[in-house]
Every structure is written in C-alpha cells, then in structure tokens.
Amino acid sequence: MANTNKVNGFRPVRYLNGAKYNGQFRKYIIPASDGTALFVGDLVKLSTAGSDEGYTAVVQAAAGDACIGAVVGFEVDPANLNTPQYRTASTKRVVYVADDPALVFEAQEDGDTDPLETADIGLNVNFVVAAGSTTTGASGMQIDSTSHATTATLPLRLLGLAQRPDNENVLSAGGQAYTRWEVKINNHQLGSSTGVAGV
Predict the structure, then answer these.
(1) How far apart are CA 114 and CA 116, in angstroms?
(2) What phi, psi does 45 have (nearest 5°)?
(3) What is the pLDDT of residues 141-153, one digit of tens each?
(4) Measured between alpha carbons, how far is 196 from 145 in angstroms, rounded to an integer?
(5) CA gap 70, 58 in Å, rounded
(6) Domains of the chain, residue spans
C-alpha cells in the first residue's frame, strides 16, 4: 500500500540515547525584517540580525544550510487566538525551537525521482523547502530523497525508518515515495564541526 503524502516538516521524537523527546525548547526571535513566513516543523538557522529583546534571532533555513533546530511552536499571538499558530512574514515573533544537537526528528521524504531505500541509512541528505500551510500551521519542508550521499556538509543524517504502522517498509530496491524517516541534524550550528561524512 502506498504511503500517504502528509507533509508537516521536521518533528522531534527522541534523543540519540533512546530517551523520548520531552518537549524542551529554547526561545528565539524572528525579526520583523525577515520576509518569509515560518511554520511548525520548519528547520531554522541563526540570523545575521543578531538578537532582540534578549533572544537570539533565527530565520527559515534554506536547503543545504547548517541548522540550529526545528520550530515546535510560537509565542501566542493574542490577536489570533482562534487561528493556526504560524509566523506571518515581516512580523517580529518569539519562536520555540527544539535545538539540542542530540535530537532525532521524523520527516517525510518527497520521493521525487529516486525514493530512499533502507540501503541509504547512514548517508547524509538535504531537505526541500516549500511554503507551509496557513490552514494547519504545519511546515512544507521534506527530506530531499535524491540527495543521499556521504558528503559531510549535507545538513541531515538518515538514521532509519520511522516505526509507524502507516509507514510502509522499503526493504526492496526502488524505495517508496512519502516514506517517513528519522534523521538528526548533521551540520548543527551548536555542534563542533561542519558535519560528519555519511557511511
């Protein structure tokens, strides 16, 4: 059975030591000068804007960028309590980011041209940036399935299949589009290097 195409970015699920993700995050700020909307599940990077109100600034990461973490929420906007919480473009907003370098995230691959296979586990991959949903507030980011390589500077490390009953196992050659995988940030801005080569 084919996997369902349900894009929602990068969601923290556990730590490398096996402990479950406990909801921890760090507060950052998105400056009003940034003209890109931001959604829950988006990968973010440190901004050249520096800091504001005592918080370090971040912006949406572009494909190939080193990342600081993934968005898990926003400071509530009292003017929009009954709408999905996302950050509209060109507005200053406090954002909650899961930024521990040891975090494992679940995300969907795009399945474009060359879907990932279990043989690709251990390799590094890039991500695809797309607009999020203003209806659900969820990110439009996915794993770029055609990017798997040993290249140390690729931003994500493919750790394995997300163990879910609705996620078809891709043991055979050819892979399966929209498979959900577990990854960690390989090129992490709180890490000690620019990433580790895949195996």
Answers:
(1) 6
(2) -135, 165
(3) 999 999 999 999 9
(4) 19
(5) 11
(6) 11-185
